[in-house]
Specification:
Structural class: mainly alpha
Shape: elongated
Strand content: under 5%
Largest sheet: 2 strands, antiparallel
Radius of gyration: 37 Å
Distance between the termini: 109 Å
Number of strands: 2
Strand order of the largest sheet: 1-2
Length: about 800
């Protein structure tokens, strides 16, 4: 045997092999003076291990497999939701974009927007800014907005993939478990990518807040984990700085971001090595963890300063908001009866699901929901499976703050988007355990789940196509839902299917006879169907039950407008004028009220006031064809040469849109007034050749022939017209029998310019200037009550009336 201290190889220690021999016989001790400079993963766990530093086993990442699985998850997102790029607007989308379109007309829009966002950080200012960017970039093209949502969902899935892979990789290397990190990460991201319960955020444009919050949520957790585990101080500081930046962005996206510091603090606890003493860990991590703990405690108080995004006192379909106790009970009940049920069995998804509303906590499902939340919070302290604990934590945190802060809308799929991600992480962790015992079966099960969920998501996205398909499906799931019937009725009215809308509103009234909103929806469906007499009774019943307090003046004004609109079509001009003028005190710039007041004055032959009211309404709502005929009649009846061209432009639009008898006569009359007799005769030719005599057509043709110098034909036509109707001259009062005398009088080849619809202008005929308007006058109509008097201010010459304001409802 070799003696102690002798070289066992028999070689000189200075030889090349001597160092190896020494290293094999003696263990090199670490330099204890340098241990304080090492990152926590290299600090000895206790004094006994001071001589033997534990270094984590580092395996090489299979980058091709890593990126291949990440790409597959992104592909699943587009495969499941790609159909939505052909979808339209649904639920609150239209109102969201209309409000932004009106706001973008202001030069100070962005300054006002960000000032309000900073003052109320949880009001979803960043989310609304993305809608404004959509509007300015794509101009009301919903397909692009849907594509933006899909991309945001894809990035969220990618960040979930990165987070679960990094955690699984670390826990496997530490020996906490022996799970395949590639499979676990792909399963978590893949299940979340195609789950149909996420469609409420992805397929719904206005659900983007949930996407933006969740994207920033997982991005912050990834940055935190990267900084927490990094061995270099500059990288750690950079990552923590990125965390604070993305937390700020998340707060501007939605209120769920207030729980981010809690998630970061909990994640720091989860990655703490199990064999490291708490004293040593706190010595190394105390300062940074204390910072995140302070943020976790302080951040939720932002709700007291900002609150949830502002909404009306009634939700989108007019259902009254719940009381606080009923709201909280409903949140716990819907967690069991809808969210968790659809998370595990994703069938029966709906925007108005059944069995979700609870009056108080005596409801058994509300009690069960509360116990589930409490049990989930308790399980967070059980560290048997760190990844499952993380998923459970995200599930619980995702329920806040909507679970505790009373909100007008008490259930929506996009609220559960973040919590659903937590459930998918939990499912992936257990599938990973199954994968360790039977890889083939686990892969088959996971693939089957993704296919089934993906097919369900594609079908659900089809239901999100528009309001019609969405609420039709909601009625199929919950036929006793008043909300679903009323919303479906409104969608049908928007598509001018008024008879069906009337039937749906009546079904809602059968389910809830005293529902005021259902009565209003029925009344407006009747107005759309032109059943004006039938619509008056429900409108009067609503007005009788409306509170007369100052807070209700807006609602009362809307009801008066609807009643006045019905009276206008029933030729009850006095009643229509009285109600419309009362409503104008609240809504002075409403186009529909301009129409009602203008037509009422027109019936009384108050042509000047009628023209100014009708012109103001038409310029503010140029696509409303109801203005065309009365504004032309008012212009021609006023006898003002400066208004004739404007009237002819409106008459031309009406004529070329619908060449009915009345439109033809009005157009021909305008041409005669402007001194274009040949064009007038050409327009009247079908009526003159008709077998049925027409006194008005003959009379206008006689004036046109007279202006054209054909006295004989003019006399014959006039005699025929007077024989048919001796009073025809009063029915067709042509003011300028010789044509308008002006330097710009059109010639024989005149063709009127038809004002395009959808923009705020009404083009007069070619070679003409904008009509000169009368000065401000105060008009007190004959036979009108004193309360109905109004001052009609006409703008200065060539100026457009200041008529920007509320838009008229579609009647």
């Amino acid at each position: 045997m070799d003696k102690a201290g002798e070289n066992p190889t028999g070689k000189n220690p200075s030889d090349g092999g001597s160092s190896k021999g020494r290293s094999s016989s003696k263990k090199k001790l670490p330099d204890l003076a340098k241990l304080g400079k090492a990152r926590p993963t290299k600090i000895p766990r206790n004094v006994k291990e001071a001589a033997e530093v534990v270094v984590l086993t580092k395996k090489k990442v299979h980058w091709k497999l890593f990126f291949g699985l990440a790409g597959a998850c992104i592909f699943l997102c587009f495969a499941a939701y790609g159909i939505t790029v052909w979808n339209g607007l649904a639920l609150a989308d239209s109102g969201q974009f209309q409000a932004l379109q009106q706001g973008l007309q202001s030069q100070d829009f962005w300054l006002d927007h960000w000032s309000d966002a900073v003052a109320r950080p949880l009001s979803e200012g960043w989310t609304r800014a993305t809608f404004a960017w959509d509007l300015t970039s794509f101009n009301w093209n919903p397909g692009w907005s849907h594509l933006v949502n899909i991309c945001l969902h894809a990035f969220t899935c990618l960040y979930i993939y990165l987070l679960t892979f990094r955690l699984s990789w670390r826990f496997t290397n530490e020996g906490r478990w022996q799970l395949n990190p590639y499979f676990v990460a792909a399963a978590a991201a893949g299940l979340f990518a195609v789950h149909p319960l996420a469609s409420g955020a992805v397929a719904y444009i206005s659900g983007r807040s949930a996407l933006l919050v969740s994207l920033n949520y997982f991005l912050v957790l990834n940055c935190f984990l990267l900084g927490y585990l990094s061995e270099g101080l500059p990288i750690a500081i950079s990552c923590y700085l990125a965390c604070f930046i993305f937390i700020a962005i998340a707060l501007f996206c939605g209120p769920q971001a207030v729980t981010l510091p809690i998630a970061m603090f909990a994640l720091g606890l989860l990655v703490k090595p199990t064999d490291e003493p708490w004293k040593i860990w706190m010595r190394q991590r105390g300062i940074e963890m204390a910072l995140f703990l302070i943020m976790a405690v302080a951040m939720p108080f932002a709700l007291l300063l900002s609150g949830l995004p502002g909404h009306d006192a009634r939700n989108a379909v007019g259902i009254p908001s719940l009381s606080p106790v009923s709201y909280w009970a409903t949140q716990f009940k819907s967690l069991i009866s809808y969210y968790l049920r659809c998370a595990f069995v994703p069938f029966g998804l709906s925007v108005a699901p059944p069995y979700t509303v609870a009056h108080d906590f005596s409801d058994p499902l509300a009690i069960v929901g509360g116990l589930v939340v409490a049990a989930s919070a308790a399980l967070l302290f059980v560290r048997q499976n760190a990844l499952s604990v993380l998923g459970l934590l995200i599930f619980v945190l995702g329920l806040f703050p909507n679970l505790v802060v009373v909100h007008p809308d008490y259930i929506s799929d996009d609220r559960f988007y973040l919590s659903l991600a937590g459930l998918c992480i939990i499912a992936a962790s257990y599938l990973g355990k199954y994968f360790q015992s039977n890889q083939k079966q686990a892969t088959t099960v996971c693939a089957a789940l993704i296919v089934v969920l993906g097919a369900s998501t594609v079908w659900r996205c089809h239901e999100w196509k528009d309001d019609l398909t969405l609420w039709q499906q909601a009625i199929a799931v919950n036929p006793n839902s008043v909300e679903a019937h009323l919303s479906y009725a409104q969608a049908l009215s928007a598509h001018k299917r008024y008879d069906q809308a009337k039937n749906e509103a009546k079904k809602a009234l059968q389910l809830s006879p005293s529902d005021r909103f259902a009565t209003l929806v029925l009344a407006r469906a009747l107005v759309g169907a032109k059943n004006y007499a039938e619509a008056i009774d429900p409108l009067q019943r609503i007005m009788a039950t409306t509170d007369q307090s100052p807070k209700s003046q807006q609602e009362i004004a809307e009801l008066k407008k609807d009643l006045a609109y019905c009276y206008m079509h029933m030729n009850r001009s006095a009643d229509a004028l009285r109600l419309a003028q009362e409503a104008q005190r609240i809504h002075p710039n409403d186009p529909t009220l301009h129409l009602i007041v203008g037509k009422s004055f027109l019936d009384k032959k108050g042509y000047m006031v009628a023209f100014m009211q009708l012109q103001a309404g038409l310029e503010d709502d140029p696509s409303n064809k109801e203005f065309l005929v009365p504004v032309a009649e008012a212009a021609f009846g006023s006898g003002q040469p400066q208004w004739l061209r404007y009237g002819l432009g409106a008459a031309a639009r009406a004529y070329f849109d619908d060449k009915s008898r009345n439109n033809t006569l009005l157009y021909a009359r305008g041409l005669v007034e402007l001194g274009v007799p040949k064009e007038a005769l050409k327009a009247l030719e079908p009526l003159l050749k008709s077998e049925k005599p027409d006194a008005e057509a003959d009379y206008i043709a006689s004036v046109a022939q007279e202006n054209a110098g054909n006295a004989k034909e003019a006399a014959t036509l006039k005699a025929t017209a007077l024989k048919l109707d001796p009073n025809v001259g009063n029915k067709v009062p042509i003011k300028n029998r010789k044509g308008a005398k002006s330097a710009n009088t059109p010639g024989a080849s005149f063709r009127p310019t038809i004002a395009p619809t959808g923009i705020k202008q009404t083009n007069p005929p070619a070679n003409s200037a904008k009509p000169t308007k009368a000065p401000s006058v105060e008009v007190k109509p004959t036979n009108a009550p004193a309360a109905g008097t109004t001052q009609v201010n006409a703008p200065a010459d060539g100026a457009k009336p200041a008529t920007k304001g509320t838009t008229a409802p579609a009647h």
